[in-house]
Design a protein that fits this description.
The complex is a heterodimer of chains A (413) and B (73).
Chain A: H1 2-9, H2 17-26, H3 31-40, H4 43-59, E1 62-64, E2 69-71, H5 80-91, H6 124-128, H7 141-156, H8 159-175, H9 181-203, H10 210-215, H11 228-255, H12 259-282, H13 291-309, H14 313-326, H15 328-350, H16 354-388
Antiparallel strand pairs in A: 1-2
Helix pairs in contact in A: 3-4, 7-9, 7-15, 7-16, 8-9, 11-12, 11-14, 11-15, 12-13, 15-16
Chain B: H1 2-38, H2 43-51, H3 54-72
Helix pairs in contact in B: 1-2, 1-3
Classes of the chains: A mainly alpha (413), B mainly alpha (73).
Chain lengths: 413, 73
Amino acid sequence: MLLDRAQSGGLASLPYATSLEVVTRSAPLPAVLVATVRDRVPAARAGVITKALLGLAAREMVAATPRSFVVEGWIPAAGFPKLTQALAARFGGRVVVESVAREDWEGESAPVVLQNPRLFRPFETITRMVPLPAYGTIDPTPFVAVFFPMFFGLILGDIGYGLVLAVIALWLRHGGAPGSTRRAVAEVLGAGAAFAVAFGIAFGEFFGDLGARWFGLHPVLLDREHSLLAFLGLAIAIGAVHIVLGLALGVYNASRGHPRQAVGKGASLVMVLLIVVVLLAAIEVLPHGFLTPAIIGLLVLFPVLVLAEGIIAPIEFLSTLSNILSYARIMALGTASVMMAVVANELAGSVGSVLVGVLFALLFHLVNFALGIFAPTIHGLRLHYVEFFGKFHSPGGQAYRPFAHWRPSGHAG
Amino acid sequence: MEAFLIPLSAALAVSIPALATGWAQSRIGPAISASLAEKPELSTTAILLVAIPETMAILGFVVAVLIMLRAGG
């Protein structure tokens, strides 16, 4: 009953609306109240009420006298000239727009907007799943847009599965409205499918070894089924690149305001590179002459690291190294994926009846395909959130909510 | 004897960390579910926390592969 009134009559008909109005005039909306409303009503209706409450919170930004008013709010810097022009065109000189420099602003910190080119925009969904980056720090979306589908493709790495996934992604995208989460997910999956096909060509896989059996498909880059060590090396090398990139972004983020941290991150970045050089020299990929200077460099940098980041730094550095090893999962999951496909193909021939064998193989492929979407997504996300973001991401950004989003529905007061 | 010990050690290398992962996740799962009941917005953190111990199982798998490749031929 309470709910029906809340929906039709707006917030004013809620029993505690009177006290609410008094509160919002003087102080920000109490979080307790929002929680109370959420606890009492089912989720679908809670949305309506939360919206109304946000509308009240927006009204807090407005002050009016009989003859004048002041509205205070945030706008993305790029939209500022447009706002000024629109207001000037509509109201002439009667509305004055004044921008307050960030240095002079003493209220809560600026909200954050993620702005990316159209190609990268779907990947903002991935960035938004963790707390937004703080104002003035790096938006990791462009890097996610390159590495996430790449990891996905490396793990799935099969022309056949990739094409099936592309069809599914197209169907998903077709059904989603522009800007919806469904469409963004479809586009992320589509990018993953494209990389899966590309790596499928590189690995010479079409539903496992079916391509090799039917039309003599050959691996261009490496044979995942047999050269496990090469694949492991590739996965860890990609991990090293990704972590070094993360550390570089960390240096950049910390260089504004935290010079000590920046030095520490820089030292661990160079140390990771030097360790790679030492390892490569030890297995004689690089000339042996590199070994001594690299080790001397490590010995020099170690005290720098400890001085910059304290006694805990060596342990953190070890965790950085184990982060790189964590990328071995790309190889583990990739190998599992190709092996399952090969087993499915072998099943088709090993059962007495051809029909039963083929049906069984299809079922096995279906299971492997489902795993092949699920595993790369979960592990790709994990590699980003834990290993990559951990190196530079500084959460704490407030999402930007324009006034337009706060308009309470069906309640004009 | 070796023909028996090498696969056995590979099996141990993957199974013990996998059990450890399972144990760790069995402790993390209930704890994070309890927090989720209070704060639904923690769901991403929940996935991450459950995913962290997986590293052990995966490194165990890598070690097992290395044992089989290097010693098992």
